[in-house]
Design a protein that fits this description.
With 95 residues, the protein is an alpha+beta fold. The chain has a single domain, classed as 2-Layer Sandwich (Alpha-Beta Plaits). Helix content is 20%, strand content 41%. It has 2 helices and 4 strands. It has helices at 19-27, 60-69, and strands at 4-14, 34-42, 46-54, 73-82. A hairpin with a 3-residue loop joins strand 2 (34-42) and strand 3.
Length: 95
């Protein structure tokens, strides 16, 4: 199976731990090289964040476990990049 290089997931999280702590915990997973957490929406009880995780061969299960260990829930997997390198999305003339 081709290695998972990037995964973008939509996550529902409590306010604690903070986004800084959340990014750090996910980044500490062995298969993860980098993490970006972006706030999409927030209310009094929860936050909806976009979690982008990259690495040479990301173990999705480890990322999902980290999210759940911190009290979060994966809503959806919104983007996946696999293979020898990450193919960046490009605009084509027909769009």
């Amino acid at each position: 199976m081709a290695p998972l290089r990037r995964v973008v997931i939509d996550v529902l999280t409590p306010h604690e731990p903070t986004m800084l702590e959340r990014a750090s915990v996910v980044a500490d997973r062995d298969s993860v090289s980098g993490v970006d957490v972006t706030l999409l929406e927030s209310d009094q009880e929860v936050r909806n964040v976009k979690l982008t995780v990259e690495g040479e061969s990301v173990r999705y299960e480890a990322v999902e476990d980290a999210v759940e260990d911190l009290g979060g829930t994966v809503h959806s997997v919104d983007q996946v990049a696999c293979g020898e390198y990450v193919v960046e999305e490009r605009t084509v003339p027909q769009e």
